[in-house]
Structure formats: structure tokens, C-alpha cells
């Protein structure tokens, strides 16, 4: 059955790929972009079922009116793909507090505001699916991406909690964590903090050089990611968390082993902090 999608960030990359696959499957798609040029290009994909809306997620006051405008043209939103966002590369010490605020303003606050704009309707209709595009960096970490990965960890936690709250209403929530895809994430879409501290040269300069050289050459295929989203949409019991890409599977597993190794090594210390008088647990 045809559904109405709202996909944020459909100018390029995963957002555009998901939109194309959804349109090809006969769905209606409202997509957000940041320029009129991209809006015209998106409408041209399917003049009957594709609608484009100018939206910058940093403009929080425009998010709810944009959702209402999309619904006025295409009908109630059945599927949200909260995809828009960007990456910030830089060592923790060299990245500014303004960098951190901007990263969270777009990736976290803008995404959450979009989810909050569609959720009441889904809850009232007792149905819908919310996809939040996070990153493998929401499950593991790599040097030079502290603020970006912090924003994606935040989304993973928020999404997991949301899923537990709205499952009772028939609203499905899935955090989709891609690995490296053939997109411009590490190219045009990646903001790079300037270098200023020589102590980090040996660690970080090779990492930055490699990311620049390999931009757009990830193992992931955006069109196949679009197909994966549609498969999850049709699933009887879709997951709350899913990884996209064999690199994501490998790297997240390695990161989780590092964390578990710490937990195991210090288990006795962890248990030593329990009260000798007993007590209750939160769950």
C-alpha cells in the first residue's frame, strides 16, 4: 500500500537514495533541501508524487510548519526518515564549543524536533514508522570525530527510549547506523576544524589525510541502503537498531569488545560500590 514519506536531507547521499527507492516503489515523498536548485531537482524526480520543502534544521521554528505543509500536500506522514545532518572532524581539544553546539543543534536538536513534529499524528492514528539515521559512530568511536560521534550516540539513546515508549501505539522506531558509503559525507559534507596543536600531528594528520583521500569510496551502496529501509518498513517486527554495511558490523563489534573488556576487567570494583544494606534497582 502506498505511504507518505517525509525524508530530511534529500539533496544527495543516503537521503536522496532512499527517496528514489520510495518513489520507485509507488510511495509519495516529501523531501527537505536547503536550496531552490536542489528543490527543483527533487521535484523533477516525480512531479506527481515528489514534493520539496526548503528547511535548515538549525531553524527550529520552521520544522513544525514544514511538516504541516508537507501533510497538507501529500497527506499524513506515515514514514519519517530523519536523515539530515553533517559531520565535524577535529580532535577534541582543537574543536571549539561553538563547533559542539552547532553539531548538536543540527544532528540532535533538529532531528528530535522533526520526530516530535510527526509523532503526535502517528500516535493518534496508531501507526507509523520513524527511521533515525545515526552512524556506526553512534556505537563505536574513532579519533577526530568526538563531537560527531557524541551526537550520534545521543540519537541512539534517544531512539531506543522512544521506541520503548511508543511501541504500545503501533509506532515503530528504528535507528539506522550506516558504515562508510559512497556519498560525500567525508568530502563536501564534512566540516574540518583547523589544526593548531602540534602534539596531535603524529596521530591525527594521517587520519585526516586518509579520510580526504577515501571520500566517496566507502563500501556501502546508497541505493542498496534505500532498499534496506523499504525492507525494514515491510518487516512484521522491525529492529530498533540496525547496522548497514559489513564495515559497520566489523568495527562496531570490535568497539563493543573493547568496552566489554573494561567492564569485565573491573567487575569486582563495580560490584564493590553496592550498599551493604541492600536496596532496589531501577529495573
From TrEMBL:
CDD domains: 17beta-HSD-like_SDR_c (cd05374). GO terms for molecular function: oxidoreductase activity. The keyword Oxidoreductase applies. Belongs to the short-chain dehydrogenases/reductases (SDR) family. Keywords: Oxidoreductase. This is SDR family NAD(P)-dependent oxidoreductase.
Amino acid at each position: 500500500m502506498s505511504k507518505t514519506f517525509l525524508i530530511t536531507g534529500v539533496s544527495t547521499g543516503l537521503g536522496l537514495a532512499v527517496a528514489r527507492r520510495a518513489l520507485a516503489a509507488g510511495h509519495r515523498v516529501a523531501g527537505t533541501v536547503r536550496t531552490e536548485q536542489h528543490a527543483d531537482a527533487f521535484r523533477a524526480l516525480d512531479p506527481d508524487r515528489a514534493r520539496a520543502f526548503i528547511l535548515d534544521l538549525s531553524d527550529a521554528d520552521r520544522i513544525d510548519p514544514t511538516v504541516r505543509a508537507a501533510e497538507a500536500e501529500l497527506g499524513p506522514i506515515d514514514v519519517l526518515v530523519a536523515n539530515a545532518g553533517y559531520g565535524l572532524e577535529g580532535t577534541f581539544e582543537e574543536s571549539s564549543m561553538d563547533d559542539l553546539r552547532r553539531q548538536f543543534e543540527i544532528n540532535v536538536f533538529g532531528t528530535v524536533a522533526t520526530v516530535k513534529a510527526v509523532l503526535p499524528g502517528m500516535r493518534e492514528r496508531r501507526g507509523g514508522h520513524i527511521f533515525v539515521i545515526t552512524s556506526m559512530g553512534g556505537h563505536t568511536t574513532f579519533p577526530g570525530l568526538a563531537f560527531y560521534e557524541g551526537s550520534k550516540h545521543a540519537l541512539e539513546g534517544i531512539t531506543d527510549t522512544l521506541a520503548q515508549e511508543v511501541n504500545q501505539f503501533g509506532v515503530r522506531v528504528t535507528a539506522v547506523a550506516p558504515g562508510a558509503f559512497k556519498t560525500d559525507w567525508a568530502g563536501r559534507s564534512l566540516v574540518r576544524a583547523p589544526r593548531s596543536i602540534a602534539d596531535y600531528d603524529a596521530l591525527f594528520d594521517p587520519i585526516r589525510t586518509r579520510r580526504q583521500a577515501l571520500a566517496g569510496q566507502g563500501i556501502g551502496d546508497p541505493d542498496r541502503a534505500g532498499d534496506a529501509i523499504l525492507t525494514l518498513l515491510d518487516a512484521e517486527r522491525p529492529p530498533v537498531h540496525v547496522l548497514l554495511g559489513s564495515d559497520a558490523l566489523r568495527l562496531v563489534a570490535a568497539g563493543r569488545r573493547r568496552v566489554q573488556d573494561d567492564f569485565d576487567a573491573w567487575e569486582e570494583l563495580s560490584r564493590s560500590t553496592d550498599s551493604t544494606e541492600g536496596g532496589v534497582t531501577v529495573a
